[in-house]
Amino acid sequence: MDLLQLRNTILSIFFLCCSSVAFSHTPTQLIQDNFSELTDFTIGYYIDRTEQMSFEQIEKQAFQESPNSISLGDSAKTTWAKIELKNTTSNATTVYLHHPYAYHNRGVDLYEVVDGKLTRKRLLDMDDKSTQEWMYRGSAVFDIQLGPNQEKTLFVKSWSFSHQWFSLNLYGENESKRALLGQFTDIALLVGMLLALIVYNFLLFLSSRLKEHLYYSCYLISGGFWIALSYGLLADLFNIYGSMAFKWHLSLVSMPIFLLLFMMDIFETKKKHRIEHWALASILILLMVNFLYGLFDIVNALKIASPLASAMMLVSFSVSISMFIKKHVIARFFLIGHILFLIFSTRALLFYNGKVEFNYLNSHGVGLGIVLEALVLSLIIAYRIRAIKSLKETQTELRLQASTDPLTLLFNRRYFSIAANQELKESQGSLCIAIIDIDHFKQVNDVYGHTAGDKVIIKTADIFRAQAKKQDILARYGGEEFIILMPNTTLDDALTQIENIRTTIENEKMNIGLKHSLSIRISAGISEISPRKIDLDDAINQADKALYNAKNNGRNQTQVYKTNQ
């Protein structure tokens, strides 16, 4: 034997010994009486980077120790786990091996070895329904039969589409059922929160037709669907897994598209912020192209999606900072939402690449980030609703101020003309108009002052308002002059109504302050408006002539316009 052959023989023996040591160092899990569960224990794992190795070859490899929950990144698509079991009782028992994240895999295979011999194997292909008898609500569940005092080695092959992460747990029968029943309650809660926001904002869009509600709803739909898909809720409810589920991960690409559209609409970048609009529009085009590409090649589209998502976050974050510097009131919401999403997504990214420990926050980081950002962005919607409501109230107040006399809160002369002409166009019955004037009002101002005069005008207006019918249009026409249009009213009815007002005012003692009270009288003129020749100005002139007659005849009376006047 030459030196080269000797060296190779020594190296072979060395690697065989190392393999044997590593192989034998996987701790044995003891199954004792009344076994309930094992959810934190040590396993061995081996990454088959060729993705072609047979089980016989795998048996001979050195397995590295690790926790039973592990993430290994995207270079470990085919990974084998090894679990040593020993039944320490004198009775046969059954334990259940759970792979709770099997729904995101291409397949899960289980090999059972006793005394160095393969005794049972089960091959689970997520795209082959005939092999899915061990799938239950998104989890792979295998029953493991252990004879009295029997030792058994389990080899679990987990082969994924992209990133490799899994958790292997052991349960007794009752604990197995409980674990399956409560597995996706948290995800259902997260999706339920997003669903409530989706319905609310879609209803807002239908009522307001504002695109911001539509974009936000679509963003929530994409995010909620991806969460339900990625964290197993759709597998739990509808048995969606394997290649079919993998293709639907394209929803993760559509989510930032709608978020960018939402930002562009909320910030009005196209009209007011051209540089920011160009930045958002550029990354939006790239995302849309990648989405269309994903319809034909989902694998490569998702690979491109990762750097695009990073670029999108950078651009949107920069735009939010720019808007914040420009003192845009809602920019802080975007910054808070982006920061939360960035923190949780970074943890998830490190988890998927095997850089941080396997825990709930890390494994569910993207979903939690989406929900938290969505909730923060909902504050923008709430703020916008309040802003729009405040604007409408302000506009209503301005319209009211423009149409209302500030002293009496009756309509002013300008609005009366608009409202009366509209009523004349629409009315089918008889109409009457009356002009009313406070008798000797100048004396009230001269003797008691303008403050007392204002009180008289206010009190008179209150009586008019109380006595007028609901359909009447009442306004302050001048200083102490009032006008009232009475739709669907005959001349006799109008005379009766105005006389009631006159006598009420005549009998009213008006308190003007300093223990003074006045008795006020009014004069009124009424004109009937002909439905065949409707002209508001003519009707007002006729009522004014009748008022002139009432004043000439001694005041404190109502006169009706007659054609011979």
Question: How does this structure look, described?
Answer:
The protein has helices spanning 3-24, 55-59, 173-181, 185-208, 211-230, 233-238, 243-247, 251-266, 269-272, 274-294, 298-325, 331-352, 360-363, 365-403, 413-426, 441-448, 450-467, 491-506, 536-552, and strands at residues 28-31, 37-38, 42-47, 64-67, 69-73, 78-87, 93-99, 105-114, 117-125, 135-136, 139-146, 151-160, 164-167, 169-171, 431-438, 473-476, 481-487, 509-513, 516-519, 522-529, 558-560. With 565 residues, it is of the alpha+beta class. The strands form 5 sheets. Strands 1, 3, 4, 6, 8, 9 and 12 form a 7-stranded mixed beta sheet that branches. A 5-stranded antiparallel beta sheet has the order 2-14-7-11-10, with helices on one face. A 5-stranded mixed beta sheet has the order 16-17-15-20-21, with helices on both faces. Helix 12 runs antiparallel to helix 14. The radius of gyration is 42 Å and the shape is elongated.
